[in-house]
Each structure stands twice: as C-alpha cells, then as structure tokens.
C-alpha cells in the first residue's frame, strides 16, 4: 500500500509536511529510517461533506473546489492540485469550505476610512461686467487681486470665470460663455512677464465643478479628461502665441491637435511683429486683444495698439502647419463648444531652464529668464459684445460677399478716376493739369479711402457696436 502524504504528529519529518522520499513529494524520511512515515490508517478527520473528498481514500481526490479556499498552509494535495492551498494537517482532502474554517480576525484591524472632504477653492476675485469673477485653484503661494475693472495675477495662479464666490468647489457655477456671433475683448499688460514665464487667457470646454475639485481640463490633460482648448493668448514680453486645439495627436498632420493650429509671434519673426519696442505690437505697453467668433465656429484673433488693428490668427491660414486652413472638422468642434458654452481661464506660470522655448525660443541677455515670484500680468476691461450693423447695411453672409464688395469698390474707384481725368483733360485741351474743377471731388482723398479699406494694418475706425458687456448667454 502506498504511504499517505502526511506525517503522523509524533513522527514529524524535521518540520516538513511531506515525507517518505519520492512517494511523498521528495522530502526527507522520518527519523526511524523507514521508507514511509506512517502505517495505513483510515482518514476519519475529513468530514464527508467536504467537496470532492473521499473520507476513506488512501490518495486524496485530484480536484480542488473553486469556491472554497483551504485553511491550511501549503499546496492542496501536493502535485495533484498544484497551486491551490492545502487543508490543515491531518486532513486527507483537498479543500475545506470557508464556512467551516473562517479566517482569523486581524490582530490590529484598520480603522474605517474617514468620509471624503469636499475640496475647497483657492479664493475668489471680482472680475468682469456681470457681477462674477475669477475663482482660483489652491496651489501656489502667490496672489491675485482686482482693482476697478482689472485683474492682476502674480507668480503662479490659475482661475476660472464664475458667476459668484463660494468656499467649496461643489458650490461653484462657472460663467459659461456662448460666443457664437460675438467678439470677446480684453486689455493685456505683460510688461512684467519675462522670458520663461507664460501669461495665458484661453477657453476650455471643461465640465462643472464638484466636491472633488474644479474639474479643470485642457488638451494636454490625461486622455480621460482631455477637452477642447482655444488659446486666445499665451505669451510674455518676448513672444506670444495663439492656438486652437480640438483633438489628441502630436504631428503636423493638418489637424488642430496637441501641437495645435498655431501662430507664434516675436521669437519666430525676429521681434518685428511682437516684442519689447516692436514696430507692430510693443509688448512693453498694454494692448487690446480681440477674439471674433462667427456663427459657424470660425475664429479670428486681433491685436490692437495705438488704434491700429492687426489680425494675428485666422481660420483661413493658421492651420497645422500654416498657411493651411483650419480643417472643417475642427471648425465644427469649435461651433459646438461655443454653442454649449466655454469657460474662460486666466493663468500665470513659469518653466525652468528652456521649458518655455517652444513659445519664446529661449532666454538671452536681452530677455533674461523670469523670476516667478516677481512676474505679474494684468487683464482689464473684459467684455463680450455683439456687433450690430447699421439697418441700411446688408448683413454679411461670408467672406465671398466681403471680397465682392471690395472688388466692386475698386471698380467704382477706377471708374471715378477715369471720369476725373477726362474732366481735367477738358480743362487743359487734352493735357492732364491736375487742377480740380470747382465742386469736383479730390482724387487723392478717394485714393486714401481706398487704401484704408484694403490695408490690414492701417488705422481704422471701430465699427458701430451695441455694447452688451459680457452678454454671452
């Protein structure tokens, strides 16, 4: 008869549970020198209700029950049920039901976890024309303050436009801007934002705040939290950027991905269009930023300084890469986001070393690296307005109509000049005298008007507007 795979309690094999050479798993034999540990015996210790166990078997059953762990401390039944736990010593079966052998209670039970604590905001600063303001994250040791119609951020801050103050994020309601057919204007002063720092004003389609926090997201967030981002302005005193991000991806593949349908000013143009003392936009002085959103999700961004308006980003030629157009899929995403309402975000942050070189090309003697605690950006006169045309003027339907209007104007101007020259010839017997007849219009005056209509960088008069400050519902 084959020996049983157990050692009798009074003939333990030097602490091993298995014994008797090859017949019992290759462990050392009993001290007596016999070939087996124990004489054949009846296994009365294994109750009949144990699963798949034979109480009188000399070999255990080659099955272990899947729904009942063993209370023992080795593999169940040796190699016959390899990988499962064994019964307590002395049992000749594979498993012991959990109900028959409950695990012992822990010596030091862990206390129950405390109830979740509602996340708190990092403060509220009044800003904007609708009685709301900016609610801030708690990170950072720096400050934000409001003065009249302006908001100043210092150091390292990020805030979101909200309807009213609250101490808990779960009580915050964001002021969602519905900007289709609107123009968003704000005056920006980055004269104290050095190279390596980033003052940003942008729109994101972030969810509502809750007890866990602000719910912030942008295009660079983790995949589960990624959302549409419209960077109306990111910059410092050396460089600036405008970008649209609607989807994931990092390549110049024509999509407005994480690289973005972007335009860089300052570092990319040698400081001609933007920078300290630049002829176009002098970053050492405040300038006005305009974001224009048509009814179909197309965006244009303008910078205005000293009465001169310059378009710096357009859906027509600011794609990825430029000068390609923004793809229609991205335009549709923007249209939907602006219809649903987006959250305005203002932030100021710094990067170490060349971490901001993607924006400003790196720092140098002329533009030394900023000290985060000393950096400050000022946003003022925030307003969203609906442009209202004069009742006698036709409502524009798109860029084709605008181009047609310009062409017709040019044709009319040329026709007028031809008539004027013919009149002058009559006064000089076929010679162009350049002397006007009494009451005739000045050709120089009309030429000046035509240049103004066609020149993107000439001084222009602000169109008639119905100012509805922050009228974005």
From TrEMBL:
<dbReference type="GO" id="GO:0030245">
    <property type="term" value="P:cellulose catabolic process"/>
</dbReference>
<keyword id="KW-0624">Polysaccharide degradation</keyword>
<feature type="region of interest" description="Disordered">
    <location>
        <begin position="431"/>
        <end position="455"/>
    </location>
</feature>
<dbReference type="InterPro" id="IPR037019">
    <property type="entry name" value="Glyco_hydro_7_sf"/>
</dbReference>
<dbReference type="InterPro" id="IPR013320">
    <property type="entry name" value="ConA-like_dom_sf"/>
</dbReference>
<comment type="similarity">
    <text>Belongs to the glycosyl hydrolase 7 (cellulase C) family.</text>
</comment>
<dbReference type="GO" id="GO:0016162">
    <property type="term" value="F:cellulose 1,4-beta-cellobiosidase activity"/>
</dbReference>
<keyword id="KW-0378">Hydrolase</keyword>
<protein>
    <recommendedName>
        <fullName>cellulose 1,4-beta-cellobiosidase (non-reducing end)</fullName>
        <ecNumber>3.2.1.91</ecNumber>
    </recommendedName>
</protein>
<keyword id="KW-0732">Signal</keyword>
<keyword id="KW-0136">Cellulose degradation</keyword>
<keyword id="KW-0119">Carbohydrate metabolism</keyword>
<keyword id="KW-0326">Glycosidase</keyword>
<dbReference type="InterPro" id="IPR001722">
    <property type="entry name" value="Glyco_hydro_7"/>
</dbReference>
